[in-house]
Amino acid sequence: MTHSATTEPRGARKAPSTGGRRRPRGGKGPRRRWGRIVLLSVLVLVLAAGGVGYWLYRDLDNNIKGVDIDKAIGDDRPQKLPTSGQNILILGSDSRAGANAALHTGNVSGARSDTALVMHIPEGRKKAVAISIPRDTLVTRPQCTKADGSQVASARRVMFNSIYSQAGPACVVKTIEQISGVRMDHYVEIDFAGFKGLVDAIGGVSVTVDRDIHDSSSGLDLAAGTHRLDGTQALQFVRTRHGIGDGSDLGRIGLQQQFMIALLSEIKKQDLLGSPAKTYRIADELTAALTTDSELASLSKLAEFGRSLNGVDPSTMETIMLPVAYDKVDPNRVVAAEPQATQLWKAIRSDDTIPESAKKSPATGG
After folding, report:
1. Bigger pLDDT: 78 vs 104
2. Residue 143's pLDDT is what?
3. What is residue 23's predicted lDDT score, i.e. its pLDDT?
4. CA-CA distance, 144 to 152, in Å (whole number)?
5. Which side of the chain, N or C, has fewer Cβ within a 10 Å radius?
6. To 10 degrees, what angle do helices 192-201 and 276-288 make?
7. CA dihedral 77, 80, 85, 86 (to 10 degrees)
8. Could you give phi then psi for residue 119, rounded to 5 degrees?
9. Confidence band of 261 (pLDDT split at 50, 70, 90)
């Protein structure tokens, strides 16, 4: 959820003046709220696992796709947390193929990790923090093994969101682990169609806008007032930026916050466990769009993991952007800001409280 790909080619977006610097697409905001939607989707899926018959269970179980992260990466990985805390990489993929092609997600070929969050659940599993990684962050991509067994050489100064299409999800995990020193315990990916299906499965979400919104890029066309958004409209709503504010990524943050509150409220007031048919529809939509690491690639494993997270409330999850600074060579890109980034990852590695100084980013997109 976090930044959108519009029908404009990447790198061709216009942004308001920022003193000679074009605002990087990796500003804070959109991917953080999308990450909450992804987490919420996973939690809803876990609830669904207990309310269906065996044949339905098997059908849903077969929907889930798994990636053997351990096999792809090997032993060159950070140690696990010294506590019962967990780290989960959540990716929102922006493939333009299949069901996603009609969702106004742009005309870029292939798939990219439009959203990337490291969700840290400290020991006790009563709270969570999501660290968003700006997609325009320049990083060093390590040597990786693709799903077909071929090798992708290491490369410096590559855009973070390009790694998914160049080398696959396991390489995204490996890259994050190497730049952070933090072991990813699990991997969860959901695509645009999965988000659309979730909203449609719950019967839509109501939002109120105080002025007309017309955005030809996202496809959103709303008059001022209250609207019941279906899945397609909801996706357009959280991806709109041209129809509001100054046309930058910052303009849509308010819309995404508004929609997230509305979505959480809608799910909370619906008796999902009391409606097996609706629960199944939600689970079917999600499992068809869900990819996880092999350790979570079944309903029983997801349910077991979900039960361990019962104390976590997605609506109170803290969201932080990886501290970044404008790149000195290319001000349209960002790099990890120091010493903030080091302080942030150190706190995650030791399962400690993240210091406030590690949450401040020199490049805010503002």
Report:
1. 78
2. 95
3. 45
4. 5
5. C
6. 170
7. 30
8. -95, 120
9. low
Alpha helices in the chain (DSSP H): 30-48, 54-63, 69-73, 163-167, 169-180, 192-201, 231-239, 253-269, 276-288, 299-307, 340-349
Burial class of residue 274 in the structure, from the number of CB atoms within 10 Å of its CB (0-12 exposed, 13-18 middle, 19+ buried):
exposed
Which SS3 state, helix, strand or coil, does residue 226 take? strand
| Tokens coding 26 | 């990796």
Tell me the CA distances in angstroms from 71 to 145, 158, 292, one per residue in order. 10, 24, 14
Write down the pTM of the prediction: 0.73
Q: What is the pLDDT of residue 89?
A: 93
Residue 246 in tokens: 């100054």
Q: Which two tokens stand for residue 88?
A: 């989960």
Q: Among residues of the chain, what percentage have pLDDT more than 90?
A: 26
The CA-based diameter of the chain, rounded to the nearest angstrom, is: 61
For the segment 178-184, the average pLDDT, to the nearest whole number, is 95
Answer positive or negative: Cα dihedral of 192, 197, 202, 205. Answer: positive
Q: Cα separation of 188 and 170, whole Å?
A: 11
pLDDT tens for residues 195-251?
A: 788 788 888 989 998 888 888 777 888 999 999 999 889 888 877 766 665 443 434
Closest CA to 161 of 333, 339, 365, 362: 333
d(CA 112, CA 164): 5
Q: Which residues pair with 186 in a beta bridge?
A: 88
Looking up tokens 């098997």, which residue turns up? 58
